[in-house]
Amino acid sequence: MASSFSILLVVVTLVALLAVGSCGTDFTVHVEKGSCPTKLSLVTNVEVSEVEIREKGSNDFLECKGSGTKWTLESKEPLKGPFAVRLTLKNGGYRVDDAAIPEEWKADSVYKTKIQV
């Protein structure tokens, strides 16, 4: 039969694991005023090393220009949403949300992604 101490140790360990696993920050993207069908100006709530966008129907990610929390993607043709977002974190890891910015996005709107950082 398990001792009370062993059961308590297991419970404390599980609580600690759950607490650590839920400490992430929701990654958000603000599509700034001035964004239009050929230009996305983005501000992220967390500094990252790189932001890439994949248009609907594409297999390739397009690299945004910028740094830190401000990023821009410009195109000669209208960009097609919804947009997947792939970001590279400062520690070198990366995260992807396949539908971070909806098809009917609006300038001066904030979109919460499924990415935890």
Describe the structure.
The chain is α+β, with helices and mostly antiparallel strands. The chain has one helix at 4-21; strands at 26-31, 39-48, 50-54, 62-63, 65-74, 83-88, 94-101, 109-116. The strands form two sheets. It has a four-stranded antiparallel β-sheet with strand order 5-2-1-8, with no helix packed on it. The radius of gyration is 19 Å and the shape is elongated. The termini are far apart. The model is unreliable at 14-21 (pLDDT under 50).
Strand order of the largest sheet: 5-2-1-8
Kindly state the percentage of residues in helix: 10-25%
Rg over C-alpha atoms, rounded to the nearest angstrom:
19 Å
What is the count of helical runs? Answer: 1
Judged by helices, strands and strand pairing, the structural class is alpha+beta
Got a strand count? Answer: 8
Query: Which spans of ≥5 residues are poorly predicted at pLDDT below 50?
Result: 14-21
Major beta sheet summary: 4 strands, antiparallel
Bin the strand percentage: over 45%
H-E order: HEEEEEEEE
- Terminal CA distance: 41 Å
Give the overall shape.
elongated
Oligomer: single chain
Mean pLDDT: 87
Provide keyphrases for this structure.
single chain, 117 residues, alpha+beta, four-stranded antiparallel β-sheet, 15% helix, elongated
